[in-house]
Design brief:
Elements: E1 8-12, H1 16-27, E2 31-35, H2 39-58, H3 64-72, E3 74-77, H4 80-84, E4 89-92, H5 98-111, E5 117-120, H6 127-132, E6 140-145, E7 154-159, H7 165-177, E8 181-185, H8 194-210, H9 216-226, H10 233-240, H11 242-256, H12 264-272, H13 304-320, H14 326-337, H15 343-350, H16 352-366, H17 375-382
Parallel strand pairs: 1-2, 1-4, 2-3, 4-5, 5-6, 7-8
Antiparallel strand pairs: 6-7
Helix pairs in contact: 2-3, 8-13, 13-15, 13-16
Bound molecules: nicotinamide-adenine-dinucleotide.
Length: 396
């Protein structure tokens, strides 16, 4: 199905992400049905959308009549049959649980027309497995929005093993029609692009802190004020939710092994005590009085190049696996987390040989797989493809 043919959508799950995705679709003229497990949740979700549209009107970004028309395009139901009967695309945004998602995909397979595309907003679970719960794996793909969907420019479009190129093209075009910049994850890898690279830099920060080499405030100050990132790694982990960082980290460890060895002594106690970051008021920092103050005077406590090195290394794993292009990786990190540069362009400027040597030094010192240079990085460095100065690195 071409994206121009998409007129009607269903969004399954009307929580933090689902109601935002439904609002976005409706703002761009699509008819949407939101599905959830009871009417009260759906009423709340619709109230949130109404409130959010009101804010757009207040800021004069849209007119009141546009807000009214947007709201009128959003229906709610607990019935998959009602929501699915003539949709062109369904986007699942239910809790991050594979057996639940599989049961939802099986239901969608029964309740939507056979040519409808079924997409999942999962942060890291297997698209292939969800596809297998249906009789149309070619029409099942990942469509990973960032939070909040109306504000964040990035969408990761993920190919499962059975996904057809046509399905990917349709979702890429749909993302563009929603005003987003899509990047393509060519293989069904865990963490996709953005969460996978964030997983690596988080671990480098957690282990550095755990080894007592720098304070969390010092790491965050260096990342923010020296590195030019919008938030330090501890601040960002708290901001996005430590439970999410924990779940993604666990899956990365299960899939990729020792390279993603979790810093359990640091994070497990916080999870156990339900200190999940901003949303619970406490995580690595106290958020009860607003955003934590990251002291400026610690801006040299941590070597930011260590974060860049593990990020470039993970990018090299993605490229070596033919899961993503350097361009899409850089776009993902800049639009998905507001990095000042992408890891590939940064490595090309710094020198891939410099990056590889940095990693080798860290690997020799700590004997951790996190720091072992990826074969592709070593290969490029040995061929003299060291980046900008050589005319070829991650980029030509
Ligand atoms: N929150 C984020 O920052 C974020 C960002 C990107 C992706 N995601 C992913 O999006 C998905 C949803 O996350 P969320 O944060 O919106 O979760 P959430 O808990 O806020 O919302 C999930 C909603 O799904 C509903 N639900 C549960 N079972 C259902 C069923 N059988 N049928 C229909 N609805 C059902 C719940 O009642 C709830 O309203 C997850 O896969 C998550 O990994 C989350």
């Amino acid at each position: 199905m071409a994206s121009g043919m998409i007129k009607k959508a269903a969004v399954i799950g009307s929580g933090a992400m689902g109601h935002g995705i439904a609002e976005l679709l409706a703002m761009y003229g699509y008819e949407v049905f939101m599905v959830d497990i009871n009417d009260e949740i759906l009423r709340n979700a619709k109230e949130k959308i109404k409130w959010s549209l009101g804010k757009f009107v207040e800021k004069r970004r849209i007119r009141q009549e546009d807000a009214d028309a947007t709201l009128a395009r959003i229906g709610t139901t607990t019935s998959y049959e009602e929501a699915g009967k003539d949709v062109d695309v369904a986007i699942e945004a239910a809790p991050e649980n594979m057996s639940l998602k599989k049961s939802i995909f099986a239901k969608l397979d029964q309740s939507t027309p056979m040519d409808a595309i079924l997409a999942s907003n999962t942060s890291t679970l297997s698209i292939t497995e969800m596809g297998k719960a249906t009789n149309r794996p070619d029409k099942v793909a990942g469509m990973h929005f960032f939070n909040p969907p109306h504000a964040m420019a990035l969408v990761e479009v993920i190919k499962g093993e059975g996904t057809s190129p046509e399905t990917i093209n349709t979702l890429v075009e749909l993302a563009k029609k929603l005003g987003k910049t899509p990047i393509i994850v060519r293989k069904d890898i865990r963490g996709f692009i953005v969460n996978r690279i964030l997983g690596a830099v988080f671990l480098e920060a957690f282990w550095t802190f755990k080894r007592g080499e720098a304070t969390k405030e010092g790491i965050d100050a260096s990342i923010k004020y020296t590195g030019g990132f919008p938030m330090g790694w501890f601040e960002l982990a708290d901001f996005s939710g430590l439970d999410i960082a924990y779940d993604v980290g666990k899956i990365l460890y299960e899939t990729y092994g020792e390279r993603f060895k979790p810093c359990s002594e640091l994070i497990d106690p916080l999870i156990k005590e339900h200190k999940l970051g901003q949303k619970t008021g406490v995580g690595f920092y106290d958020w009860t009085k607003g955003r934590p103050r990251i002291p400026f005077n610690l801006l040299e406590e941590y070597d930011v190049d260590r974060s860049w090195a593990v990020a470039a290394n993970e990018a090299a794993w993605l490229i070596g696996d033919d899961a993503a292009s350097a361009e899409d990786i850089d776009t993902g990190m800049k639009l998905g987390t507001y990095w000042p540069q992408g890891p590939c362009e940064h490595a090309d400027r710094t020198g891939l040989d410099v990056m590889a040597n940095k990693l080798k030094g860290l690997h020799a010192k700590y004997n951790m797989e996190l720091y072992r240079p990826c074969p592709l990085l070593e290969d490029y460095a040995s061929k003299g493809w060291t980046g900008k100065k050589a005319g070829r690195g991650f980029y030509q």
